[in-house]
């Protein structure tokens, strides 16, 4: 995209932002005048007010239940604290009241409020500090006091620190316990049955997560994570991509005075390997820093596989491939956040994330094709694939406060991200029968750069919190891939220009948003709209051809939450989401590591739009219960499409905008403390998917009932012992327009012991002790072929870990409330 066009787009967006700010200022004036007029006509009443804060961090606690009881102990009034922790409750009589303050995860507090006839018409309880109820492993037995799962209008929050099983597991290993999340047979994460979602670390994007998700989450100890948020109806401040929503992994609490940290060392076998991870938080004066880091080795010992394909055309053929495979992955990551308070109104904060990985995959295979017109074909091959990746992202935020309005904020943010990936594969062929392809190598060098500029403005107007912002993302993707054939005459590998290319892709996204959050006693409403303009240019350098795309989208989002009496709530939401294809789907690199099967990207892919409607119910009584209903539909869906060429006997797979789908699903999570020593929890998802598209000119249907259930039994004993027993059931899942994987049943047992109270703990875990191996099967079908791919994978594994907590914490420190959150692209 020309620089002049980019500059004009940025200037246009800045003009739009100025207009939004002017509208906000006008709304402030009108709302203030209206509320003042209403206040003059309100009848006299008696007032009880105060502010609810956390005793450790002194941060305000929103949505806390406040109950007013009369002199007989009978409840007469109830209210909810606002987002800034404040509450104002009106009563009609003068007497000695009792105020009961109750919040999930905090100890209940009771205060007197004397409004007898000899006192004034109002009483200010001042700052009411609540103490965190969770202090050590023993207290976890009272699960009703600290529910592991909490629900808000637009998200579910899973508290990993409150789940003892986190001490023996990785973040990926805990995902099956989180509502709306499923792991398929390959440990790929599905959110509401969909593989399109965004993952954030502390609310911010990271190249390490975007390009190396499974490896990072496998190597990240769950004990170093505070909580995980599943944002099912993302507000308009988030970018529009991620069809199913956002998974936000929060590594630490707010920066606090003093220092604190945790260290975890672990080992698993025969699958897996050694790992280490930790987190650290410290504050000195106006400067604060937090960080997390880890490294691991994940080893997959040698296992076998079988791949068979039967063609159904006029000259049917049968292909049978058998072989063995093993792999090894090394992963390391580091992330940090820093902040410095210049004064009470000015704050500078920044983030830095670095990650790297190295993998090696070795495969030996024999292949036999029968029924071919030119005679039967056969060959053996050895395939060595090696890959490296490196990612970095750095951001800087400058936040300005205003004396006139406490929570009015203006934030300027910049972020740079880069990711490099290299793939090198070599295929050696032998024992060839009617198969004349020489040995060959494949290389692919990918590079991704991204610059992001963002401005956010937030201001409260009475009970309304108004947010507005503008943003520009400038992305540059490059891929240089080559195919080299072995020349017997020279003994060298010669480049094949017809199978090589250089590809570049620029994707510039310009957006603006405006949203309103309203807190009305027991109601919480968040409504907004986001507009996005996307400009894409693809350039095939070797062939001197280009492809351009431009599209404009208006994306609304509404979520409504209602807190009912007795710690129950309901919520409703509607959102429209977009999925832009990332470099992994666009890259025209053709993977020919198996000569009879080719996989490639599609540089002409267009974005996918999803409309999603959902409702939920939550209860945090002794029985903690969360139920969700979801209906979504989308057109122009980009799906993996597989076609068979009978002439070359090659099956080709790539992404195409050919699909149309809708789904109706439900999620349920429940936990119940049967006794002080035993608790039971269930996390389940059920969804019916209607999916259809075109392959080779024919309509293909892949309708499917999908479900998953995770049943967890927790036992808590004296002297810091805890035991967990899990049962996981996962159904078949679609693998594209024309495929699906088989379901499975898994079991897991873990035990952990607190060696030094709140400091040192030991954990051990065994997965699937009754089954050594599992056959992981994927079936693919088309109008003229059927294919079945089966791998024999290790299923039983054992892991041990040691977790150490250190340091002490005191006062809180401010962090930038707005920062860059790029969550608009899917790979």
Automatic annotation (TrEMBL):
It is found in: Cell outer membrane. The keyword Mitochondrion does not apply. It holds the Pfam family CarboxypepD_reg. Keywords: Cell outer membrane, Membrane. Residues 406-804 form the Outer membrane protein beta-barrel domain. InterPro entries: Beta-barrel_TonB_sf (IPR036942), CarboxyPept-like_regulatory (IPR008969), OMP_b-brl_3 (IPR041700), Plug_dom_sf (IPR037066). This is Outer membrane beta-barrel family protein.
């Amino acid at each position: 995209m020309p620089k002049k066009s980019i500059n004009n787009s940025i200037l246009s967006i800045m003009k739009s932002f100025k207009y939004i700010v002017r509208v906000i200022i006008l709304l402030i004036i009108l709302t203030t005048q209206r509320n003042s007029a209403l206040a003059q006509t309100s009848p006299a009443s008696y007032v009880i007010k105060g502010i609810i804060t956390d005793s450790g961090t002194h941060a305000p606690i929103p949505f806390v239940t406040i109950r007013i009881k009369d002199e007989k102990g009978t409840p007469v009034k109830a209210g909810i604290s606002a987002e800034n922790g404040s509450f104002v409750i009106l009563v009609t009589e003068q007497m000695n009241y009792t105020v009961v303050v109750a919040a999930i995860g905090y100890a209940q507090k009771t205060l007197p409020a004397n409004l007898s006839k000899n006192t004034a018409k109002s009483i200010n309880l001042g700052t009411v500090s609540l103490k965190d109820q969770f202090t050590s492993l023993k207290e976890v037995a009272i699960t009703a006091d600290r529910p592991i799962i909490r629900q808000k209008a637009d998200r579910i929050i899973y508290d990993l620190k409150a789940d003892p099983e986190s001490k023996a597991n990785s973040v990926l290993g805990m995902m099956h316990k989180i509502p709306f999340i499923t792991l398929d047979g390959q440990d790929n994460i599905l959110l509401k049955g969909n593989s399109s979602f965004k993952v954030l670390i502390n609310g911010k994007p990271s190249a390490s997560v975007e390009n190396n998700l499974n490896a990072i989450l496998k190597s990240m100890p769950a004990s170093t994570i505070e909580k995980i948020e599943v944002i099912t109806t993302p507000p308009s401040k988030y970018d529009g991509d991620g069809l199913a929503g956002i998974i936000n992994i929060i590594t630490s609490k707010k920066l606090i005075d003093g220092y604190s940290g945790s260290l975890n060392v672990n080992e698993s076998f025969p699958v897996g390997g050694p790992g280490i991870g930790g987190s650290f938080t410290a504050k000195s004066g106006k400067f604060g820093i937090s960080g997390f880091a880890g490294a691991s080795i994940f080893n997959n010992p040698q296992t076998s596989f079988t791949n068979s394909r039967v063609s159904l055309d006029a000259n049917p053929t049968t292909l049978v491939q058998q072989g063995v495979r093993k792999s090894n992955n090394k992963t390391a990551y580091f992330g940090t956040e820093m902040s410095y308070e210049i004064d009470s109104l000015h704050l500078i904060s920044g983030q830095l994330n670095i990650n790297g990985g190295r993998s090696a995959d070795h495969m030996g295979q024999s292949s036999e094709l029968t029924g071919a017109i030119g005679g039967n074909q056969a060959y053996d091959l050895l395939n060595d694939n090696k890959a490296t990746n490196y990612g970095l992202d750095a951001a800087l935020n400058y936040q300005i406060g205003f004396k006139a309005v406490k929570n009015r904020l203006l934030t300027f943010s910049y972020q740079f991200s880069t990711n490099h990936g290299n793939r090198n594969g070599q295929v050696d062929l032998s024992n060839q029968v009617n198969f004349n392809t020489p040995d060959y190598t494949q290389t692919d060098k990918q590079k991704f750069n991204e610059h992001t500029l963002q401005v956010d403005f937030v201001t409260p107007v009475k009970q309304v919190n108004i947010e507005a912002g503008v943003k520009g993302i400038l992305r540059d993707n490059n891929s240089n891939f080559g195919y080299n054939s072995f020349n017997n005459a020279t003994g060298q590998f010669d480049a094949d220009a017809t199978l090589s290319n250089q590809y570049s892709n620029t994707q510039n996204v310009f957006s603006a948003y405006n949203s309103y959050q309203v807190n009305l006693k027991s109601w919480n409403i968040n409504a907004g709209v986001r507009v996005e303009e996307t400009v894409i240019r693809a350039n095939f350098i070797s062939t001197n051809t280009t492809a351009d795309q431009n599209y404009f989208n208006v994306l609304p989002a509404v979520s409504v939450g209602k807190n009912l009496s007795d710690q129950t709530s309901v919520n409703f939401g509607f959102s429209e989401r977009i999925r832009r294809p990332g470099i992994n789907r666009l890259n025209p690199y053709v993977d020919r590591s198996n000569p009879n099967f080719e996989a490639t990207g599609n540089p002409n892919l267009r974005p996918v739009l999803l409309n999603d409607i959902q409702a939920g119910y939550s209860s945090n009584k002794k029985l903690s219960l969360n139920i969700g209903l979801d209906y979504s539909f989308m057109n122009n869906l980009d799906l993996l499409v597989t076609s068979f060429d009978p002439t070359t006997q090659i099956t080709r797979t790539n992404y195409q905008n050919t699909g149309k789908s809708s789904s109706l699903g439900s999620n349920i999570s429940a936990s119940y403390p049967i006794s002080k020593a035993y608790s039971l929890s269930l996390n389940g998802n059920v969804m019916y998917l209607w999916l259809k598209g075109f392959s080779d000119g024919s309509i293909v249907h892949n309708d499917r009932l999908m479900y998953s259930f995770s049943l967890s039994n927790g036992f808590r004993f004296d002297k810091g012992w805890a035991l967990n027993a899990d049962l996981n059931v996962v159904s078949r899942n679609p693998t594209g327009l024309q495929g699906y994987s088989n379901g499975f049943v898994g079991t897991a047992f873990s035990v952990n012991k607190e060696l030094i109270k709140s400091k040192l703990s030991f954990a051990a875990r065994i997965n699937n002790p009754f089954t050594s191996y599992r056959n992981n099967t994927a079936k693919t079908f088309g109008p003229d072929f059927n294919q079945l791919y089966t791998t024999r994978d290790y299923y039983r594994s054992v892991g041990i870990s040691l977790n150490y907590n250190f340091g002490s914490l005191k006062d809180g420190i401010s962090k930038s409330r707005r920062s860059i959150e790029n969550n608009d692209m899917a790979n």
